[in-house]
Amino acid sequence: MKILFIPTLLIILTTACNHKKADLPKADVRPPFDTLMINGKVYALDSISENYYNSVHYKYPSDQDTIPLDTNRIKQTKEGIKIHLQNNQIIFLKNDSTEQHSPFYHEYIKTLSHIPYVHVNAQYSEYSYELFINLKNGTKMELWEPPLFSPSKKYFVCASSDLIACFEENGIQLYKEKNGGFDKVFEKEILDWGPDEVKWENDSCLVIKRAKVDKTENLQFDYVRLRLKI
């Protein structure tokens, strides 16, 4: 009887184990996360789904963060833009189509309500960049793209993607508010992918629609989360 009992017991245990394995849900396997090296620090790029990316609705700027144009302080003409600073100095952004390396047109975009900066777009023949000008002292910052502010407005990011034409920068800039101005946290040019679209998930995380060029020179997209170290 003992000889028959052991195989019978093994059959019962094996059947039970197989049954339990069959009842387990399949693992939610995602591609391994990627990384980005910025200023000697490793930043994780965690894979997220397109549905989750689309569920993140916060996207700055909004019209509520813009004050009406003060024509006594800012005037745009066909010659350029004249800005009267709060320290009584004047900045003139001249339009110039005669020099190849000079901006041929400046366009006033907005004046921010939460911090004294004017946003201006400078257009060249084949590319453009954004200017942030401090109304207090005239300090200028050149940005790759229009800034996207975080929910607290303490940070902003500029994301530029140009993988095909390669006329403009391809990468991410991050700035932090400090003493009524902004300090650059980092500026990272990226070679193998481009941030096609960026949203703030919260003040310390970005979600990114990431573009890559396939073998046929078409863009393919996936979605990642970038956790910021700020």
Portion in helices: 10-25%
- Helix and strand element order: HEEHEEEEEEEEEEEEEEE
Q: Strands of the biggest beta sheet: in what spatial order?
A: 1-2-17-16-15
Strands, total number: 17
Kindly provide the radius of gyration, computed on alpha-carbon positions and rounded to a whole number of angstroms: 26 Å
Poorly predicted tracts of residues: 1-30
Q: Please give the count of helices.
A: 2
Head-to-tail CA distance between termini: 72 Å
Strand content: over 45%
Gross morphology: globular
What structural class do you assign from the helix and strand content?
mainly beta
User: Sheet with the most strands?
Assistant: 5 strands, antiparallel
Mean pLDDT, nearest integer? 83
Topology of helices and strands:
Blueprint: H1 2-23, E1 34-38, E2 41-48, H2 50-55, E3 66-67, E4 74-77, E5 80-84, E6 90-94, E7 105-112, E8 117-123, E9 128-134, E10 140-143, E11 148-149, E12 155-160, E13 171-178, E14 181-189, E15 194-202, E16 205-213, E17 219-227
Key structural traits:
five-stranded antiparallel sheet, mainly beta, 230 residues, 2 helices, disordered N terminus, 47% strand, 17 strands
Task: Characterise this structure.
Helix content is 12%, strand content 47%. It has helices at residues 2-23, 50-55; strands at 34-38, 41-48, 66-67, 74-77, 80-84, 90-94, 105-112, 117-123, 128-134, 140-143, 148-149, 155-160, 171-178, 181-189, 194-202, 205-213, 219-227. A hairpin with a 4-residue loop joins strand 8 and strand 9 (128-134). The chain is globular and about 50 Å long. Residues 1-30 have low confidence and may be disordered.
